[in-house]
Amino acid sequence: MANLPIAIIKVARPVHWIKNFSLFAALIFTENLLNHDLFIRVLWAFIAFSLATSATYIFNDVLDVNMDRLHPIKKNRPIASRALPIPLALLEAAVLALAAITLSSLLNPLFFMSVVFYLIIQALYSTLIKNVPTLDILAIAFGFVIRVYAGAFVIDAHLSVWFLLCVISVALFLASGKRRAELNLISENSGTTRKSLSSYQKELLNSYVTMFGNAAWMSWALFAFFESPKASINFWLILAELSRTTTIDKLLMATIPVAIFGIMRYESLIFEGKSEAPEKILLTDKSLLVSIGLWLTIVLLVFYGGVSI
């Protein structure tokens, strides 16, 4: 029992909280990142959503305990390895879910509804949807989409239709990539631990990954073209007045090559079977880390450096 506290923390999968940083997307792209009050609200929303996601992971692990014990990687999870008793795991999930609901109710009614809806959808996913081909991918993608819009709800922000298309495309790309990597891993280890995987062909998942990868960069390109912000620093305004040749227009489009590289790199990892856990890949792959860092740097410069007119 000496390792019980570690098991309690590990089963909550705090590394997966990196996905919840997507709640800050609305704050950044509505140029409110430097608004202290709104930043604090999103930070509390991040905490609430992290508690909710941990609760769903624990609940899913309880239901999948027998199958996880047959999985080459998941067998080491606290519940599957018997490091954490199931009754205690269920209690932890209930406490985390209640804390998430309570905290979200104090922030914003729509954010509260999004957290509750997320918990319901994830419960349905764990009990039913994850075993239904195609619907399982849509459910996983929904989890990414609702995070972004929960961040918008909590600050009452509007996100353009181009950004919505981009979020949906990226979410479907990550979700289909996750399934494709799982299928590759299972085939290498001679066993299947998820019913829906047996209904997928690699060629089908390959087409999903390619289709949504293309949709992701194209929708981002459209967003970059239509939603570049106006300049706020006189230097750029004066430079543009001196000559049309020096006009800095649509500079957010400078992120497109970086986005394409990131998608290409992630897609290569998918086909190598290394994207079963997107959050771990994003934290460990150097090429992805550099591309994400560069992409974010350019985005922040464009939105907060007054470098686009």
UniProtKB/TrEMBL annotation:
Highest taxon in the source lineage: Bacteria
Coiled coil: none
Keyword Repeat: no
Statement: the UniProt record of this protein carries the keyword rRNA-binding: no
Predominant location: membrane
Cellular location(s): Membrane
Sequence intervals crossing the membrane: 38-59, 107-125, 137-155, 161-177, 204-226, 287-307
Sample GO molecular function, one term: transferase activity, transferring alkyl or aryl (other than methyl) groups
Membrane topology: Multi-pass membrane protein
A Pfam family this chain is assigned to: UbiA
InterPro entries referenced in this protein's UniProt entry, alphabetically: UbiA_prenyltransferase, UbiA_sf
Keyword terms of this UniProt record: Membrane, Transmembrane, Transmembrane helix
One CC-aspect GO term: membrane
NCBIfam families linked: PRK12324.1-4
The protein's name: Phosphoribose diphosphate--decaprenyl-phosphate phosphoribosyltransferase
